Amino acid sequence: MRFFSSLLALGLAACAWAADEDDFKSINPYLDSDMQSRWYDFGGDAIIRTDSYIRLTADRPSQMGWIWSRVPLTATNWQIESEFKVHGKNNLFGDGFAMWLTKERAQPGPVFGSVDKFEGLGIFFDTYKNNRPGVVFPYVMAMVGDGKTYYDKDTDGKTNELAGCSARGLRGASIPSMFRITYFQDKSLKLELQYKNEGEWVLCFEVSDPPTLPQAAYLGFSAETGELSDNHDIISISVSSLYGPPAGSTNNAGNNAGSRNHKMSSSRSKKSGTWTWFFMKIILLGLVAGGGYIGYTAWRANKRSHRF
């Protein structure tokens, strides 16, 4: 019985560890009860408003703020989903914010508040047009940096753009603004946006042969303002490891992944589910073994009583 109890405790502890690992997948960026963040560092002008949002910059000139994960993402295939809000009181506004998945982390700089010549992936939500004739802003684009190439700020990144799309109405949207980026190594990189109607995902771009990204990269968000300004808020972040095409990952409207999440909703990955099922089997085997041991002990005791 002591063996059975120990086995059950081990299985429950392992399941708790798997659940905790899955909690990391949701990467909660808010503060805990000790006024600390388990998974994130903050810097610059970023502020946290209880459990409502992280404001990378306020609607004031010359601000810069960032948030970076402390632990790198090492999954080969993954999906990142985030709710955000870009808004302000002025008719003229800027400059925008970026999502990063790079080798370096927490280094302020001139590219939407983060360092230039980065190595990894940058997704730029650019709200201020410098010099891109014929392009409607806000403009969302991807760039894969090699650690040596500068972001071409004068042309809003056109020189080194991997893919992008115009997103008129993204700033100040009346519904929850969200993006979902899905990556399968050497197969596809896809970005979808929600800003027109709730539950309707618009395909921004899909690259069928994307460049290789770093095997271990830190997830970050940063924003900056110049003479013009805006509020750049990150409301929720969800990260999942993928083992096959995710359900509802196409660009049609009204799938369950597109419905609005609760603030900091948990994103259950197949990996953690596999681990949980593995340890549940250990528990079941322990139950069978324990039951067999108890039955055998009872049979031996009964046999002795008949002999005497």
TrEMBL record:
Signal peptide, first to last residue: 1-18
GO biological process, one term: endoplasmic reticulum to Golgi vesicle-mediated transport
Superkingdom of the source species: Eukaryota
Low complexity bias spans: 248-259
Molecular function per GO: D-mannose binding
Stretches assigned to the L-type lectin-like domain: 18-242
The keyword Ligase is assigned to this record: no
Keywords annotated in UniProt: Membrane, Signal, Transmembrane, Transmembrane helix
Database matches in InterPro entries: ConA-like_dom_sf, Intracellular_Lectin-GPT, Lectin_leg
Residue ranges of the TM segments: 275-299
Gene3D superfamilies associated with the record: 2.60.120.200
Region (Disordered): 248-269
Ranges of biased composition (kind: Basic residues): 260-269
Membrane topology recorded in Swiss-Prot or TrEMBL: Single-pass type I membrane protein
PANTHER family assigned to the protein according to its UniProt record, in alphabetical order: RE50040P, VESICULAR MANNOSE-BINDING LECTIN
Protein name: Vesicular integral-membrane protein vip36
